[in-house]
């Protein structure tokens, strides 16, 4: 497993990270979840990503139990705050109250005294950005979060946060967590150039497009039983990938992957890691063997001919317009 620096910080993360959205605490039984984390650790993954909202806070608890007994200095735990974790008026958003209370609750569930990376899960248009940045800075100064990042923020939002941090002497963002894969390339136009200039890395989610880039979904066919497309918690988000046109082109990618000595999922994960602004690609799993297969993308370099073939096959199915954003209902 190879590691990369996160932005211009001194923090290194495994270039394949393990995430537990839609799995721990909801989609799979805890025994399977623990087995997947054990497999990730065995394969050299040191970076684990979760969020307080995943499985209504249960995912953090499962991950906390799964990582018990590990040397704390040898792993990086990342979590997030923004989405509602209760019905109270202040149990969502990026106010000081919600950030502080959510951070403490996450630490309890994760059974640790600090997280390595604390991320704003979305941008909060209802809270002054200065209030949010001061609260994050306080957590860093208290040692409860070592670094701060964001998830699915636009370039102008990241720039505004950096400006406030510079003016007030606050801790600055070192990472952004966007959706990014062969099909969904929205960050390339504006987010990546800004982040390269400012020393911010991407930790990307959905490198295999919620499973659409695995090749298991066939054009004109009913999705396999037990797949994400048949799970009500994840089906809404994968739907926009499951068009016959996209799925037909994904099948054409199979020969490109085979020629490169890779499976489709491995090639998809490796593709995201070709972008030098990407520090890590987050994979999920419901079975340990999925972890073991996908980590083989670490260290893989796809040549320019392979990259060109991928672009030629996907063609007009590539989404690169920065006007597109992740579904506002998605809490990944």
What is this structure, in a nutshell?
With 332 residues, the protein is an alpha/beta fold. It has eleven helices and ten strands. It has a single domain, classed as Alpha-Beta Barrel (TIM Barrel), CATH 3.20.20.
Intertermini distance: 24 Å
Please provide the ordered H/E string of secondary-structure elements. Answer: EEEHEHEHEHEHEHEHHHEHH
Classified by CATH, the class is: Alpha Beta
Give me the CATH architecture, please. Answer: Alpha-Beta Barrel
Q: Report the radius of gyration as a whole number of Å.
A: 19 Å
**Total helical elements:** 11
Give the percentage of residues in beta strands.
5-15%
Structural class, from helix and strand content? alpha/beta
Proportion in helices? 25-40%
CATH topology name? TIM Barrel
């Amino acid at each position: 497993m190879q590691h990369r620096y996160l932005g211009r910080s001194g923090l290194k993360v495994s270039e394949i990270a393990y995430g537990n959205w839609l799995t721990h605490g909801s989609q799979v039984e805890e025994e399977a979840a623990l087995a997947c984390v054990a497999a990730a650790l065995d394969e050299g993954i040191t970076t684990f990503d979760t969020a307080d909202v995943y499985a209504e806070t249960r995912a953090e608890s499962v991950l906390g139990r799964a990582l018990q007994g590990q040397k704390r200095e040898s792993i990086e735990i990342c979590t997030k705050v923004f989405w509602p974790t209760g019905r109270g008026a202040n149990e969502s958003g990026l106010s000081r109250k919600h950030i502080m209370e959510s951070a403490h609750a996450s630490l309890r569930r994760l059974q640790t005294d600090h997280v390595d990376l604390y991320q704003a899960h979305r941008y909060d248009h209802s809270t002054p950005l200065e209030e949010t940045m001061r609260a994050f800075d306080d957590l860093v100064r208290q040692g409860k979060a070592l670094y701060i990042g964001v998830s699915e923020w636009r370039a102008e939002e990241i720039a505004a946060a950096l400006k406030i941090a510079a003016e007030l002497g606050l801790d600055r963002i070192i990472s952004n967590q966007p959706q990014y894969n062969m099909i969904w390339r929205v960050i390339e136009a504006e987010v990546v150039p800004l982040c390269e200039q400012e020393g911010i890395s991407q930790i990307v989610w959905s490198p295999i497009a919620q499973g659409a880039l695995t090749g298991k979904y066939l054009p004109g066919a009913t999705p396999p039983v037990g797949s994400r497309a048949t799970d009500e918690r994840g089906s809404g988000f994968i739907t926009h990938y499951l068009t016959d046109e996209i799925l037909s082109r994904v099948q054409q990618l199979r020969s490109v992957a085979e020629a490169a000595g890779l499976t489709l999922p491995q090639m998809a994960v490796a593709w995201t890691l070709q972008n030098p602004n990407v520090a890590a690609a987050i994979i999920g799993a419901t079975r340990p063997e999925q972890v073991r297969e996908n980590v083989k993308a670490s260290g893989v370099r796809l040549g320019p001919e392979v990259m060109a073939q991928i672009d030629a096959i996907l063609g007009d199915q590539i989404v690169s317009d920065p006007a597109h954003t992740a579904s506002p209902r998605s809490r990944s």
